[in-house]
Amino acid sequence: MTSSPSPEHPKTANTNMLVIGIAGGSGCGKTTTAINLAAALKKNDFNVLLIDTDSNPGLTQVLLQPGEVAEVTLTDIYEKLMEARVDGTPLPDANMGKKISAEGLEYIPCDVNLGSLEYMLNRLDIQDPATLLKSFIEQQTEYDYIIIDSPGDFDQRTINALVASDEFIIPIVPEPMCIKAVTELLPNIDMVMAQNPDLTLSGILLTNAQMRTNLTKRAIEEIRDSGLPVFENIIPRATAVAGAPVQGKSVLATDPRNAAAVAYDNFCNEYLQLERERY
Predict the structure, then answer these.
(1) What CA–CA distance (Å, rounded) separates 1 from 243?
(2) Is the pTM higher than 0.70?
């Protein structure tokens, strides 16, 4: 059974918005988590914006409606941000590039060209390049949450995402040696915290879990014994999760009674409760 939290923003007393980075390696459920967390927050009457920062733009490919083209993407926004930093031109409009999915999720799409961000930053010798995305996000005033889906590679795309974030979530698949991937990521996070010392790890989210296998159970035990914060709710492996992107929606919209949909709903409730306690 799920219980709906009251639609009260946990940071209302401090700020008007909370920015969540979704970080981790490839194939760990980052995009699925970003979309379903956004859908669950929207279900609780929060205003949410998704930002795709991956040049292999899975989130964009899921949320674009049939026949729709992303004519303006995060790449274009970064180009405007770099122009503003170099030439003193105005920052891009806060609404630049925004689109709405079939489910009603608001998002900023990405494209393959953002893969050259590192090259563009070096060519233009941008000062303080890690804060570019943050300067754009700081213009957003209408959202309770912004969720940033970052790429699997730890480069300027991910660094910008985390410097712009208040906190981050690491989704991982509970398999043998999975904790190794997390511990390898954390030193990079420490480098980011030099630019964003308030960045907080909200927790590790276990996703795509085959709950009946002993290997999965041992991996979950290893992760919970790591000393790192781990969410209680676990997202089980389900064919409905794989099928939802075909319809351009979250699994909460396509199959709300599915075990994975219920788990994402419960995870959202757990997340909100933790945020209320923290803030």
Answers:
(1) 23
(2) yes
